[in-house]
Amino acid sequence: MASFKAIVIEKSETGTKAALADFDEKDLMDGDVTVRVEYSTVNYKDGLAVTGKAPVVRRFPMIPGVDFAGTVETSSHPGWKAGDKVILNGWGTGETHLGAYAGKARVKGDWLVRLPASMSTREAMAIGTAGYTAMLSVMALERHGLKPDRGPIVVTGAAGGVGSVAIAILAKLGFTVAAVTGRPQEADYLKGLGAAEIIERKELSGPPKPLAKERWAGGVDAVGSTTLANVLSMTRYGGAVAACGLAGGMDLPTSVAPFILRGVCLLGIDSVMAPLKLRQEAWKRLETGLDRQKLASMTTEIGLSGVLEAAPRILAGEVRGRIVVKTG
User: Which residue spans of the chain are classified as CATH 3.90.180.10?
Assistant: First the structure.
């Protein structure tokens, strides 16, 4: 059986450690599709797994990486055949199932989505779970009835992966976007993606009021905690906020006031276990709803060994936009 390079996390009495190692294909987990992984990416959850800062990994040894794009090598699943180009996001890969930071992956065929015809595997992972989550968030706001004429949309964690893609998608749809960031030096970058207004994070970091001045028709929040509480308090009557991240914490120090006095809705976004139909719709929308030039402008590329250095940087909020990992 063939071996390939992989990032492998081992556990000892002193904690966990991730390192680049040789991995034997025979040690891959059960699944009905084997994929030659071509690209992956670095998401916030990957940073937690690689650094061991949170108990993301549930079995050891583990290959981290929650998403990949590549080519099917072998399949006993009726929906896939050798040569098919596929995408995987979530489903416990990199947590309970051996993940994407490797030359190959063996997974369930039901977890896979077909790569859009006009999209390369590299572009798919430039989007990655962060961009796919951003699209799920935008779709949720649309289902709530939000349209550009309802008013501006606020995006928190704007310079990160979810935020960057969300800004680009919303701007292309015609929304006026307010970008919240703790890195004001990224203002030109964010405006280049389509942001009309740059707001410093400190404006939303103080103790939230039950209700504050109405500013936005809705929002995409990748931060959580106090930031989300402030966004909710400032959302206009009948608006909605899609919550899809917790970089600022899992707590939510708010009150019921925005919900029962302004009819604001909090929309929870889960990308890990989202049903197949929703995933397919999101990737179909991403094929045409995201400017490829803007995607390229927010993307940098590293190799597998670079993941070990990128992981702590993404947790520290030092990564701008998207990181593509070339696994081959």
Answer: 3-115+298-326
